[in-house]
Amino acid sequence: MDKTIEQQVRDLTAREEIKELTARYCLHVVRGEGEAVVQLFTEDGVFDGTNAGINVARGSQALLEFYKAVREPEQAIPFIHNHIIEVDGDRASGTCALEGRFVRKGESYTGAGMYEDKYRKENGKWRFAERKLRFYHMVPLKTGWAEAARETKSKS
Length: 156
Description:
Layout: H1 5-31, H2 34-38, E1 41-48, E2 56-58, H3 59-68, E3 76-88, E4 91-104, E5 107-122, E6 125-140, H4 145-155
Parallel strand pairs: 1-6
Antiparallel strand pairs: 1-2, 3-4, 4-5, 5-6
């Protein structure tokens, strides 16, 4: 069944609001504003970084502890783009690409990956219900991803 114009406008508006949600996420992470990052999640929100070597944080308190640890602006500088978002009423799911610059133990890193997200609209605002982080690579800046890919292939 084709969607009405009103449904199409609602879905387009939801997609734009969700894209802005991810942009705000990046801004608050860069600024080290853990409390502001947590406000972008639902009360029962989840951040799952297990595929990236990071723990799972469930609920506002665990999310706050996790994001407060990201205090230094130079520690994580994410860039999010290439959104694919499916809207279903007050719920949505999607993916977006991630490129990032990071500092780990005083060393510069570059990384690329994606987020698999679930969103929920609460009190008129879209929020993250769940973010799953997956990295394709995370390498010291002095090593390019081509070299890292060769190393990965040679180990398999």
